[in-house]
Structures are given as structure tokens and as C-alpha cells.
Protein 1
Amino acid sequence: MRRLCTLLLVASLALPAAATARYVSSTDGSLSVEHATGSVILTGKGLLFGHVEHGTVTVLSFKPDGNAVPTVSGAKMKLVGSAINVAYSGSDVRFLFPGGRYSLEIDGTGIDVSAVGRGTIVAVGAGTVDDGSFSADGGPPQRLGFVRLATSWGGYSAGGRSDTSTSTNSNSSNGSRG
């Protein structure tokens, strides 16, 4: 009886781990954007969620994994551009993309984002005293400013460190692509 209880305990602990392993690749990484002000463009695959104090979340593309459905609250939705892009604008905007391939542009203040999977980020600050920061794969925070920063997380970086490249941005307004 004791052997059966031990076996059942071990099996109950192993099953959730095995089920989770299906969705998490050994090359998955993480991204954290904290208190950003400006423009953040995210392209990747995996789970993504966040909050914007005031601004716009534009969905450039989204292809869900299975039946995954994105959720956005605290914003008004409108179609933008010649392609069918969806923009959510407002205050206290919260969003969740539970799994899939995505491309988003977030413009605003108080941008907080967490992502698990693989992808790239391009970000530029608005020129305030503290434009926030982002960190990829547990690396050191990259402070945002007038210079556009780009890096990747997950399977795109080697050795757990992100490759950060910078370039000057000729347009330093609050979040324009330059």
C-alpha cells in the first residue's frame, strides 16, 4: 500500500510537468518591459501580456496556437491602415495574447510587458527623464532613450545573453517608427 501511494504521488507530480513541457521549448526565453514611455515593437511567438497606463496597442498580426484568443480590456477598438490592423486605445489598457505568433506596436506611457517564448523587440523612448527599461532572458536592464534599441529573446540569443544593437533615431517624438 505504501508503494502504491508513493507511486501515485510521483505520478501526480510528473504529469503536470510533462504537460507543460509540450508548450515550453528549451530555447524559450523571457522579456520584461518596465515603466516604458515611447514606442515598443514586439514580434515573436509564445505568451505575451501587459498593461499600458495610457496609449495604443496596435495588433499588426496575430496567428493563434490552436484556440488561443487574445483579450484586451480598458480600450476602444478601431481598424487602422489599409491592411486590417486593429488598434486598442485608452487608459489602463490590459492585454493577453495566450499563445501564437504576434507582431504588436505599443505607443504610450507606463508600458509594462512580459513575454515568454522567442522574439524580438525594437524600442525607443519619448525623451522623458525616465523612459523605462527592458530586459531579455534575465540579462541586465536596457534603459530607453532617444536611441532605438533592438534585441531578441529566447532561441534567437546565444548563451542566455541578448545581442543588443543600437542605432540613432532621426525622429525622437513619442514612439514614431523611424
Note: Residues 4-11, 13-24, 157-178 have pLDDT under 50 and may be disordered.
Protein 2
Amino acid sequence: MSGEPAQVAMTDDALTIDILVQSPLWQREPEAESTVMRAVSAAANRLSTRGGEVAIVLTDDSAIRTLNRDWRGFDKPTNVLSFPAAKTGGEMPAMLGDIVIAYETLTRECSDEGKPFSHHLAHLAVHGFLHLAGHDHDNDRDADAMERLETEILSRLGVPDPYVPRDDA
């Protein structure tokens, strides 16, 4: 895994996706960066996102636990956190925000739910990107809408509906 910033070309303006690998645990999944790139690109295309920059941080439970405690008041690890950037004007592409994904929680959920690593990683990347774009799941109506959008985007990537329980889990 390179950890080098990468760009995904969009239909008009380019969306820049920077992937930063902050934990050596991610070396166990050599396709993680390309999975994240495809997932975020699919979400951006679906939302017709033009330009901008998003940073994806691939980290571990310890780091995400600190972020979750400091920013959300929950002293425990979580699978994904999104940090939308403040809205700004100007000619330079806007920073959309950061998405942070924790390796151990992701792999634990894959095991518990019987999901392939790449499918669950794609789901978390799409979920995080939708938060950056202003979607949320604070109430049932918004949660249903966000889940439908996630499912639609993931189906374009060949990922089954993440909200349907698997029989073999």
C-alpha cells in the first residue's frame, strides 16, 4: 500500500482522493486502497460531486477511539468517522472532509456478520462519503433514505445490500 495521494477523474472536474495509511495492519489487505477509491468514486459520481478533495485515513482502533472520544464523546472504537470540512468559497477545489476507517473494528464486523472484507470496506467508504455530502441517519426517514442510497451505490460496485442479514453469518 502506497499511502500516496491519488486522483479519480470525474466527468467534469476532478475529485481528488487522498488515502493515508496510518496503521501497518492495513498491509494485510493489499486491495484496500483500490477498494476505497472505487467506492468513493462511485458515491461521488452518484451524487454528481464536481471537484473537491477528500482524505481517507486508514487507521486502527486505538487512533479512532481517540477521535471518537475527543470529537463525539464516545470512549470506544468505531468502524468509520466522517469529518465534513467547513464550507468555503474560492477558486481552488474545496476540501470536502476526512473519512477515518479502523482496521480492527472493520475486520471484527466482517467476521461477526459474515461479510467479505472488500464489501464491508466499500460500504464504510460510501457511508463516510455520504456523511461528507450532508446525508445523515439521525431519524428513521433520513436513515432509510441514506441506506437506500448506499445500497444503490454499492450495487453498482457488485456489493450486495449490506442491510440484508446473511444466512451464513
Note: The longest strand covers residues 95-102.
Protein 3
Amino acid sequence: MALKRIQDLAAATLPLDGTELLEFEQAGVSVQATAQDIADLAAAGAGDVVGPAGSIDNTLPRYDSTTGKLLQGSGVAVSDTDQISGYRVNINKQTGTSYTLVEADRGKVVELNNGSAIALTADPTLDADFACTIVQMGAGVVTVASSGGGAVINRQSQFDTAGQHAVCGIYCTANVGGSAAQFVFYGDTA
């Protein structure tokens, strides 16, 4: 018998003060508990997260506000075959002539837009699974390097974007000791 049903029966049939021993059968096993034990279990399992009255199949919920207690629907869906759809890319727009990639750029598109050459530094302390997309939006060619103990590699030893609207990526394959990241630079390179 479900916990909620036991509480309803107890409340409807007897005025209980919480100390009475109730007997019931759960999954074929005889169980004894006080009315207070049952009330405590119900309160502990009830939780306080509140969400919409309905949902759309396969969509992910997301928090609404910062209380950690309110959920809302989202447009992001995960199909029954684990395909993700409905998400929007997060873009970091930079207009200077230099920029250093940071942890907050993980998974983002970093747009670099300037008429002059742009120096892009891959921080050697980034984690071994860091990756982002780089787009040269303006006329200024983007040159990628790392500082300190980091290294940038490319199959053709190309470390510049190929021109305006070139799309490239950078992926950190390893980081020895947390300060010697190895980055692969790939895509529309020159």
C-alpha cells in the first residue's frame, strides 16, 4: 500500500497523536510504524521543487530563478537516440587586437573582429578537455599561440586563420601538471 494512501486512511479513521503503532503490508512484508514515522517519511520524500503542470516529451528542465526550487521547461530536447536539438550557441564577441582564451570560453564560439592582426593566446592552464570554436569576423588575421609551457600544434604547421569569416577550432588534448597544455588548432587555417 502506498505511503500516501496509508496516511489518508489513518487520518480518516482515527484521530492519531503520532505514537500509535500502525501495521500494514508493503510488497508482501508485514511492516510496523508509528503515525509520526509515516508523516516524517512523507515530508522527507515530498521535496520542495516545483515545476510546470505539464511537459514536452524529451525536453530538459531548467531552473527558474536562483532559489533551486523552481523548474521551467526549455526548448532543448534529447531524443530517444540521444540526439540534442533546440540549443543556441553561446558567443563571446571580441573586438581588440589580442585575447586570451579562458575557462569561460569552453564550448563557445569566440568571434574575433578587428581590421588589424589579432593575437589569440591559448592559456596553458586550461583543462585537457577544453574546446571552442574561433571565427575571424573582420579583416584582421588571427594568429594562435600559447604562453608559458603550453604548445599549439597543427598538422600543416599553420597557426593563422585563413581570412575573413574563417572558422577554426582549438582543442586541448593534454595538460601535464596543469600548466603545460597541448592544443590542436584546426579548420580553415593558413
Note: The two ends are 70 Å apart (CA to CA).
